[in-house]
Specification:
The protein is 61% helix and 6% strand. It is mainly alpha-helical. It folds into two domains: 80 residues, Winged helix-like DNA-binding domain superfamily/Winged helix DNA-binding domain (Arc Repressor Mutant, subunit A), CATH 1.10.10; 54 residues.
């Protein structure tokens, strides 16, 4: 799983990690029983303090998304049911609406905006494929 952080967003880094792992579990990208990266390697990969990742994992455990097995690590919880498609779409629509409002305020026209979206999707897919290739 590829986690991307935006240090300029104003959202705390640990919450960005929480949101992305929760969304991956909700979408089925992470399935019940899937292991999460250990705290130290993930912190090194993301270039953040280990306590940041530990705080994110603690929050995910409090929310019932993950469980920690002593000596083995953190795993997506078996009882964590993925969101229904409708809920996932609602979550995504909120994010899309925010991007549309930002584009409007910046004077970005529809065609240019859609071009940027396609460009960012292509870049994301390339990074995800590269990250997956590294795992193999």
């Amino acid at each position: 799983m590829l986690i991307e952080l935006n240090f300029k967003s104003g959202m705390p880094v640990y919450l960005q990690v929480v949101d992305q792992i929760r969304a991956a579990a909700a979408s089925g990208q992470l399935r019940p029983g899937d292991p999460l990266s250990s705290i130290r390697p993930l912190a090194m990969q993301l270039r953040v303090n280990r306590n940041t990742i530990a705080k994110a994992y603690a929050e995910l455990e409090t929310q019932g998304v993950i469980e920690t097995v002593a000596g083995k690590g953190c795993f997506i919880k078996n009882s964590a049911s993925p969101f229904r498609k409708q809920v996932r779409n609602q979550m995504l629509m909120v994010e899309i609406d925010q991007a549309i409002v930002a584009a409007h305020h910046l004077g970005v026209k529809r065609g240019e905006f859609l071009g940027l979206v396609n460009e960012r999707l292509d870049a994301f897919e390339e990074r995800a494929a590269a990250a997956q290739a590294k795992e193999i």
